[in-house]
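Ops channel
N.P.: pipeline sanity check, posting one input/output pair.
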């Protein structure tokens, strides 16, 4: 493990620096408790900024589910300064709206409820004369910000976008100011948006299956309920509840500022303290503790809700941050992985199952390992194999895992794949920010990001065998999902509102001052296409090449100018090529194993206009990987059972 040095600097907050391949990652805390992470990358053209909060839908009050998600939406609506054209006139109307939402939530008479709703609409229309609900977004766009967005999950909420390096002062100003006295303007329009999200989910069979699964694998825990909230609570929102939720949880000690990209720590430390140091700390409420869930023996549940039959086996796993996490992830990949060399992958490639895969689902409180199997469909008898036969086939492979019946080469190839996927993800600024955010939310050391490759490499085969025995026992939940439609749920009726009339060309006093704030003018970094080398391969084909300066991972893409528009059966051919062996040389999974041994993965895909082959791997094995791919393309062995 590499050492961590702690240094006290003059601005009264502690800073530590991590010596590793990512030595430009710095972390410190402001006096108000805000955690700050800066990952410098001078080669990046932009900066990716994120404000993360250690609160999510798990923390919604039980009688007001959906608050965390609602709050995420309305935190774009401005403050008593941002978007405020005349706060003195707007404030009394806003306070009336808050009271009316409380009044409507308590009212049970539908007629009176509608009357209150109409009053809220009139007040909202009146309030819109003194405010701008889109000013935060407009100011972000005006400073060159891109991809402004946010997300809510069970344990976290985050707000993020990228922006030019010279705009760092303005970004810090705007994104700290949004957290000071926020005003939840035009809440009615966000109601319509959230209602639409809920209604779309009711039309999505996949979402219905997912919700059934979550309800049963996390019983008696908020992880079992939808992030968006229950419909009865969505229909009765309370702005007062949102305000309390914000005041309770959006406090600096519960938040992190993350900057990744073309940013220099020594230049922005003072700015960060000036801007985010303004946030007032408040005591945090205690998070509710939920009893752990234990599966005892085998329990089976059935439902006719799936687009096609499937079996899901759920095993108790570990929460994020648990020392067993990575070894468990390797266990999961022994069963199924992206190289398709796993024990379950062979069942799918050979056609014994229509599909089989695994998923590790770790959250802050609890975790699960999920194993999915889709039964084989007999085209002659026009029926699926039984659910019981699917479970038996899966359990046979789980027994091999539990008993340590796997080869060392598979372990090494899985580790290699995990390292390659990690290196590829670290090429992206948003992925870097996401990985830091997860360390903050789950209370993990930053070494989980910085020394990930060393940690994965150090996992021993014996550790993997011990973990397999510990977690893949006889205690699990078996979900048999048969073909059918979930019972129809009532959709949320969108309230009918008079539209708000946007004020054109208006600006708040804050916006006028914001536009005058200093900008550090820098020469933009453009992509230099002259760096791309071009070679003629034959009369119709060209090779375009550019070096990867980030790491030793190559990406090879073969693109053919033909798609399903002209050759409709290419989608079937593509499916078969993804499971093809090499004639007279290798069976299908042997080809997967050969790619995996080289640290490479390959995938065929097709669109209406193009057939694409894409391969990732380590540069040390580029030639061998290309040779193997060439043999598979020229001499594919396509199995009749797969065709059926």
């Amino acid at each position: 493990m590499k050492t961590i040095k702690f240094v006290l600097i003059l601005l009264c907050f502690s800073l530590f620096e991590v010596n590793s391949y990512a030595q430009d990652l710095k972390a410190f805390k402001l006096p108000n408790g805000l955690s700050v992470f800066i990952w410098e990358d001078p080669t990046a053209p932009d900066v990716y900024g994120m404000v993360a909060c250690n609160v999510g839908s798990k923390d919604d009050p039980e009688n007001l589910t959906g608050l965390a998600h609602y709050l995420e939406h309305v935190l774009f609506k401005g403050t008593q300064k941002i978007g405020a054209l005349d706060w003195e006139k707007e404030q009394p109307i806003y306070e009336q709206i808050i009271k009316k939402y409380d009044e409507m939530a308590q009212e049970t008479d539908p007629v009176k409820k509608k009357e209150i709703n109409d009053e809220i609409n009139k007040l909202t229309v009146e309030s819109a004369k003194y405010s701008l609900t889109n000013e935060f977004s407009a100011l972000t766009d005006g400073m060159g910000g891109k991809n402004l967005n946010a997300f809510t999950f069970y344990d976290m909420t985050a707000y993020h976008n990228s922006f030019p390096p010279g705009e760092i002062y303005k970004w810090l100003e705007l994104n700290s100011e949004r957290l000071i006295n926020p005003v939840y303007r035009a809440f009615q329009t966000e109601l319509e948006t959230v209602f639409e999200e809920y209604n779309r989910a009711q039309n999505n069979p996949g979402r219905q299956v997912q919700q059934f699964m979550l309800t049963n694998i996390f019983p008696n825990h908020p992880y079992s309920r939808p992030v968006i909230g229950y419909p009865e609570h969505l229909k009765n929102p309370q702005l007062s509840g949102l305000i309390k939720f914000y005041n309770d949880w959006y406090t600096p000690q519960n938040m992190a500022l993350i900057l990744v990209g073309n940013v220099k720590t020594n230049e922005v430390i003072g700015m960060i303290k000036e801007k985010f140091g303004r946030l007032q700390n408040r005591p945090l409420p205690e998070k509710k503790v939920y009893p752990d869930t234990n599966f005892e023996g085998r329990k089976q549940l059935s439902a006719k809700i799936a687009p096609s039959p499937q079996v899901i086996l759920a095993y108790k796993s570990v929460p994020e941050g648990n020392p067993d996490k990575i070894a468990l992830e390797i266990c999961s990949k022994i069963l199924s992985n992206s190289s398709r060399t796993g024990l379950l992958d062979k069942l799918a490639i050979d056609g014994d199952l229509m599909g089989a895969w695994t998923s590790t689902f770790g959250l802050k409180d609890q975790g699960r390992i999920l194993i999915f199997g889709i039964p084989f469909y007999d085209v002659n008898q026009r029926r699926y194999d039984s659910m019981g036969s699917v479970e038996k086939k899966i359990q046979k492979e789980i027994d091999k895992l539990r008993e340590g019946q796997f080869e060392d080469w598979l372990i090494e190839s899985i580790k290699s794949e995990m390292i390659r996927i990690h290196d590829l993800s670290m090429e992206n600024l948003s992925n870097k920010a996401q990985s830091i955010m997860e360390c903050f939310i789950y209370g993990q050391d930053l070494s989980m990001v910085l020394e990930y490759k060393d940690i994965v490499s150090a996992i021993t085969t014996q550790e993997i065998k011990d973990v397999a025995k510990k977690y893949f026992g006889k205690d699990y939940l078996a979900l048999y999902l048969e073909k059918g439609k979930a019972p129809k749920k009532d959709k949320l009726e969108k309230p009918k509102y008079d539209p708000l009339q946007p004020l054109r060309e208006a600006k708040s006093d804050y916006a006028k001052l914001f536009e005058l704030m200093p900008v550090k003018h820098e020469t933009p970094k453009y992509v230099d296409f002259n760096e791309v080398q071009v070679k003629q391969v034959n009369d119709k084909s060209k090779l375009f090449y550019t070096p990867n300066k980030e790491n030793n991972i190559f990406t090879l893409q073969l693109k053919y100018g033909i798609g399903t528009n002209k050759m409709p059966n290419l989608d079937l051919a593509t499916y078969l090529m993804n499971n093809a062996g090499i004639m007279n040389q290798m069976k299908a999974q042997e080809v997967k194993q050969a790619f995996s041994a080289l640290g490479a993965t390959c995938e065929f895909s097709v669109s209406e206009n193009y057939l694409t082959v894409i391969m990732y791997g380590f540069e040390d094995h580029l030639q061998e990987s290309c040779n193997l791919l060439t043999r598979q393309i020229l001499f594919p062995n396509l199995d009749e059972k797969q065709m059926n």
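N.P.: looks fine end to end. The two ends are 52 Å apart (CA to CA).
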